[in-house]
Automatic annotation (TrEMBL), chains A, B, C, D:
This is Putative sugar isomerase. Residues 74-280 form the Xylose isomerase-like TIM barrel domain. It comes from the Bacteria. GO terms for molecular function: L-rhamnose isomerase activity; metal ion binding. PANTHER family: L-RHAMNOSE ISOMERASE (PTHR30268:SF0). The lineage of its organism: Bacteria, Pseudomonadati, Planctomycetota, Phycisphaerae, Phycisphaerales. Keywords: Isomerase, Manganese, Metal-binding. It holds the Pfam family AP_endonuc_2.
Amino acid sequence: MPSTPAHDRALSALDRFRVELPSWGFADTGTRFGKFFQDAAASNLEEKLHDAGHVHQLTAACPTVAVHVLWDFDDASDTSSAEKTKKMAADHGVSIGSVNPNLFQDQEYRHGSLCSPDASARERAMTHCRESIALGAAVGSKSLAMWMADGTNYPGQDSIRRRFGALKEAYVQLASHMRDAWPGATFLAEYKPFEPAFYQTDIPDWGASLLLCQAAGDNAKVLVDTGHHLPGCNIEQIVALLLAEGRLGGFHFNDRKYADDDLTLGSIDPYAVFRIFHEIASFEHDTGLAPGGAGVDYMIDQSHNLKPKLEAMVQTVCEAQKQFAKAQLVDRAKLAEFQGAGDLVGAETVLKEAYEADVSGLLAEWRRAHGAAEDPLATLRSSGVIEQLGKERAAAREAAGGQRGGGYA
Amino acid sequence: MPSTPAHDRALSALDRFRVELPSWGFADTGTRFGKFFQDAAASNLEEKLHDAGHVHQLTAACPTVAVHVLWDFDDASDTSSAEKTKKMAADHGVSIGSVNPNLFQDQEYRHGSLCSPDASARERAMTHCRESIALGAAVGSKSLAMWMADGTNYPGQDSIRRRFGALKEAYVQLASHMRDAWPGATFLAEYKPFEPAFYQTDIPDWGASLLLCQAAGDNAKVLVDTGHHLPGCNIEQIVALLLAEGRLGGFHFNDRKYADDDLTLGSIDPYAVFRIFHEIASFEHDTGLAPGGAGVDYMIDQSHNLKPKLEAMVQTVCEAQKQFAKAQLVDRAKLAEFQGAGDLVGAETVLKEAYEADVSGLLAEWRRAHGAAEDPLATLRSSGVIEQLGKERAAAREAAGGQRGGGYA
Amino acid sequence: MPSTPAHDRALSALDRFRVELPSWGFADTGTRFGKFFQDAAASNLEEKLHDAGHVHQLTAACPTVAVHVLWDFDDASDTSSAEKTKKMAADHGVSIGSVNPNLFQDQEYRHGSLCSPDASARERAMTHCRESIALGAAVGSKSLAMWMADGTNYPGQDSIRRRFGALKEAYVQLASHMRDAWPGATFLAEYKPFEPAFYQTDIPDWGASLLLCQAAGDNAKVLVDTGHHLPGCNIEQIVALLLAEGRLGGFHFNDRKYADDDLTLGSIDPYAVFRIFHEIASFEHDTGLAPGGAGVDYMIDQSHNLKPKLEAMVQTVCEAQKQFAKAQLVDRAKLAEFQGAGDLVGAETVLKEAYEADVSGLLAEWRRAHGAAEDPLATLRSSGVIEQLGKERAAAREAAGGQRGGGYA
Amino acid sequence: MPSTPAHDRALSALDRFRVELPSWGFADTGTRFGKFFQDAAASNLEEKLHDAGHVHQLTAACPTVAVHVLWDFDDASDTSSAEKTKKMAADHGVSIGSVNPNLFQDQEYRHGSLCSPDASARERAMTHCRESIALGAAVGSKSLAMWMADGTNYPGQDSIRRRFGALKEAYVQLASHMRDAWPGATFLAEYKPFEPAFYQTDIPDWGASLLLCQAAGDNAKVLVDTGHHLPGCNIEQIVALLLAEGRLGGFHFNDRKYADDDLTLGSIDPYAVFRIFHEIASFEHDTGLAPGGAGVDYMIDQSHNLKPKLEAMVQTVCEAQKQFAKAQLVDRAKLAEFQGAGDLVGAETVLKEAYEADVSGLLAEWRRAHGAAEDPLATLRSSGVIEQLGKERAAAREAAGGQRGGGYA
């Protein structure tokens, strides 16, 4: 590919594009109908960091790993192991990314966590969040990612307003506490329309997340999980509006066809992924930011029951880079001209040309320059790494009595 | 029905419950596949006010009529006829309610109105809104109901952020202008996820409406049209959150199964209507407001292609009163007790008992006391009014050369 | 309530209305985000049958219990225990209803069961189905309920046509085998649009179920799970079409707001439940069948994470009876008259009058006559049974080392 | 692009790939909120055929034009003008394709057409269909495309079973009549879940269409309109099942994000279009048919309010060819191997490689060889044809008194 301004812009944007890996994405997981186990699944934080490190080695784009407090730390209340954890990550070539409290698995959370009608559950949840904040600061992370399962299953089960009020109070306290205890870090407020709650989720959409962030302060931003929307929802518009408001914190990447299906990014609707990146690139362009410089956190949130976990992660990172790079190629001057003239077909064509551009050469060039594999997925698949890990871990698991875990129930 | 506290509360709440009728709901209308004409359809403002007056006479619950500036005024720029219009309404026993600008039918609005890329279209839209505000003040209305069709059909067609920015600027100006030119009136900001725009609507959801209202000022509130949501959306939760924020302005009532289907309220999902009223009654209870005293505007927005328009309106008013009255019967002390105890089935049962209560006696009592028909729909259907109007209007129409109109294309 | 023809028809229809309870509905269950345990949850078939028997005792409407082969039989290949099982059920006042093979939990089914690309998985699934048929015949059940999780998560993962062809072949063989081995029993073919498969489910809708049944023979009928449809789907129309084709086998009852949410019947949309029963009653009326005589199997399929299982089951049975009884009250002569005249409001009013009728007296009358509790839910809640069972079972569980199970993962 | 077997297969498949243009797609149209007029819109059959001829000239892929009986023939009962119509089409380089009866615009159809409760409406509809069949045979068309708006807006409005029974009887008669009166032609049975009917559409889904076709006979096939599905529906699976049953008749091409949005094909979800073509190519491959030889009718059904009609049609034809060509490139041997091995990522990668292939060279090669423009859209846009037509037609329209029409209301 010749060195055009667009080409160079894409390359430099890719330098700023980092995709965070989820520790839980390397562990066994499933649906409520069952789990299908994989020999190579990771069972503890060390194995997860190893796998994340391997993905980063192949892609050079994944320097951080999101952690789940309940699954990845032996004792959430003990920050003394932070140095050990940081070193463990460093040994695998990565560092600790967003810290994810777990506010949904304890039996006490059956009616909610931060907005449960039960004061003891609320207090337990606040304590867990404060401990997560302490852990986050201790391990050098840059963000707390708050996803809560709070909600109700039946009309009347609880007061929607009381719950939202309790949540707002909690978020205000936590974000304020973070500004002292973990300066510079971001409080990310995720939303989800349903599941595991089936009548009402306490933070159902971006509007609710935004209200909470407005109350919580400037360190609070909205986290957009691409799978957490009602059918038909225009996600890129939400992205555009949040950017304009200065409240887009980041993404949890996955794809879905029906509900929160946890599929690899772009596996169902790749053009929609491109359009999200297009909105961000357009914002950066219009506000004079460097390409890729909007300060958005890109994180993967996927738990795979059938795809080999390492493959799924590498696939997603490569797909994200592909669509991200294409979005840099949009000819924005031409686009603005067609938009101004009300030329629908002209404007659409500009967008589609970028979407349909072949960026494999550009990505290979970037990867060569950064010491990554030119085709990370092919390299992974032909390397035998997964088979080898499978053998080792199966043997270790057998030796340890068959224990599995470290992820969703 | 015996006079219990709940019974009395419901009766007094009904005193405060007013349902505004839409002038356009009495005119011929249809889908993009065609219109089916009705002899009794109204063709001009006088006929619409007549019909609305008849509904109010039957129900004693509909003292105001929403007007559509383009369809109901000969010249939007001329406020001199305001006195005549007010008198015409008064002659039919009603007064003028919300004023609805029309920002979607002029050819110039093909790419939008207040946020069109075309400055001339934007200016035309602003002028129309200012004229609507002048008209509203002149006719003694209490609100401006802003629904806009602005949006795009294709990815790339226009800049989502530029459009939203333009819209925000316009809303800020208009709401500010209203505070001077029409003090005490409410600027109602409606939202809709799609149609007539098919890729992106500029105010797609309550979150977007809320952002606009926050910018526009305290006289700006969100208008919830019950048919303007994505499938599965929990509307009563939106109502609860807007109430808590002090930003719920009012409703456009209708029902839908699929998209914006414009069906009579409660015809598809009556329990959902009850749950909306339950959230409002719960808010009134918790904040010490009188039952029905939350200051929410209840308006009908339905255009019927098949149901006789008068019947559909009476049906909707009666259904609204029915579900509203039931919501007053919820035993809130008992509900709060079950909610606090995490007793799902207990709490749900309290709600369902109110929903399943027979309020026909209570409504008949209220209607007798207010000079309405005890069973407005039955009275209308047996009165022969629609047949009589049909004859008269068909004859008048024939005499006038067959002209029809006054509503959706 | 006076003894009118409608009243008597409803009473006699209720005599024919039986609701089958699911054994797995009494065991602990959850979502993929976790389970919330209940002390009173049943852990084995005996406890499940006990609980089902208790529901039947309270309602007199639930003489049969659906069983899940994998969870309720120690050894699916051994029919010798059938007599013991039958006796165990009889001891609790119930008998064994539909038999549900489990084709989704074995690791071998990771790519499907009857239509897996793996011949060994297909064979295992066929063997399990044949064993289930043998068990069904041995325990005196009347139906095999086939729900399969088969499907794929990604475009390209497998050949949709090959899979459907394999499924059809399997269904043809199994239904044919049933005609010999289990004469008189029904092969019920369920469908589901998604979950646990997220790109494509091999039997996604009623059309696919119907194709399979047409191939499989007259003993094959479609099973409609009320929660297994895309958003907005008109379920009662599917019911009407299947009745007309002679292919409606039965129902799995539950409710949902978003996806397959497994909520209690009618908790979200009770009018929709009524409309389903209305279609069935209308079919019975038009074809001269006795009210309730259409030969449809009514089964509950709900697994509750939060509601006490016994309460949820009693609630559902009562809700089903309530809506079923209301549907009997529709004045079909009047309805037909309005329909023939194109009188929309008249026809709708007839339907709504039945829906809004108070049938509590009628149901109490029926229950008194059949030795059930007049208000089964209130009786259950005040009886202390759940608390007592909780104590006993918690103690037994502790004694046994904490083992839980018998339901969804 | 080098001449590989895949390349040659794609070229030869393109030879068999024809996209039919809709006459109504060149006329003014809109939504229920209004129409935006275009100077270049066609107002009569001659202008429509001219425009279709121009699209065919640019693309060499559109030899036929679908006609709408009510809009394109002066007198449906008069087949004597068939020769003139055929000649008019031939003069513009095209011929008459599918014939579309209009069963939704007459006032008499307010409660339905072929299944209206009104016998006179049913008879009128039958007559219109028979006349359409006569016209179709006379003009040398190959198919009758039956889309009906029949349905109801409210529960109870009519008997769903009676309506479906009437429809089935009508389809049986019409398809039988076609076998005599129009041998070799196909009776295409379209479905749609909603709009213009809002409670229930009489042919809501492919299952209902299939039942009708099974009853109607072998000349009856299902017509899949890509915009006529509930949110989330897996359309390519329906295509696969219909192919396996020998009942896939053809397509109406368009795209949608929300409902039946009538957008240009692939403008929202191009990967979904590719997957549909992949299923067809896979069927052809597995059954030994020539590539593109499945005998499926590809038709456009789009009415554009904003995009210039000629541009939208050319865009859609090019998009269809692009995705169709890509689907020919799938390495089916490799795909089958990965599928058999349960290698999800391998199989998906094979599909995605074809989807992401750059086929612009291949298409240009095919176009050069067939006398089409290499880039039909660019050629059209730079040709000034639309501007020229706009001037001519605006002048002619003015001269004729402003009459517009020939399409949706």
